[in-house]
Amino acid sequence: LGEFGEASVPHLLKGLQHENKSVRYACVTGLGQTGSAAAVPDLIISLHDTEYVPTMGKMVCDAAINALKTIGSDHALAALAGQLAYGYALVRSLGFGKDQGAALRAEKVI
């Protein structure tokens, strides 16, 4: 659907609420393909969808990260930067700061 551009955005946005995680993953991916800045607020919410999609080998939030990166608007990139800052703070709060090597490895994952 993402190949249909802006016309597909309302349908893809509706799919983000679907109970099936594979459908949500596909809709997030499609929104990234549209390049629509209008999808950014909903994609930001999808950053918190941590359901694992075995057929893709990733979580829905992974697709949201890629979609935001693809869209590349200032708002999308600011959301990604915010998630990275949150992840960095989380790594530190979990005590990885005591082992510098562990902290660096964890930061690479985030």
What would your notes on this structure say?
A hairpin with a 4-residue loop joins strand 1 (52-53) and strand 2 (58-59). With 110 residues, the chain is mostly helical. Residues 96-100 and 102-110 have low confidence and may be disordered. It has helices spanning 9-15, 21-34, 40-46, 60-71, 74-93, 100-109, and strands spanning 52-53, 58-59.
In short:
This protein has 110 residues and is mainly α. The chain is built from six helices and two strands; from the N terminus they run αααββααα.
Structural class: mainly alpha
Following the backbone from N to C, one meets helices and strands in this order, namely HHHEEHHH
Tertiary shape: globular
User: In what range is the share of β-strand residues?
Assistant: under 5%
Quaternary structure classification: single chain
Fraction of residues in helix: 55-70%
The radius of gyration computed from the alpha-carbon positions, rounded to a whole number of angstroms, is: 15 Å
> What do the pLDDT scores average to?
81
- Biggest sheet features: 2 strands, antiparallel
Number of helices: 6
**Ends: how far apart?**
29 Å
| Main β-sheet, spatial strand arrangement | 1-2
Poorly predicted ranges: 96-100, 102-110
Number of strands: 2
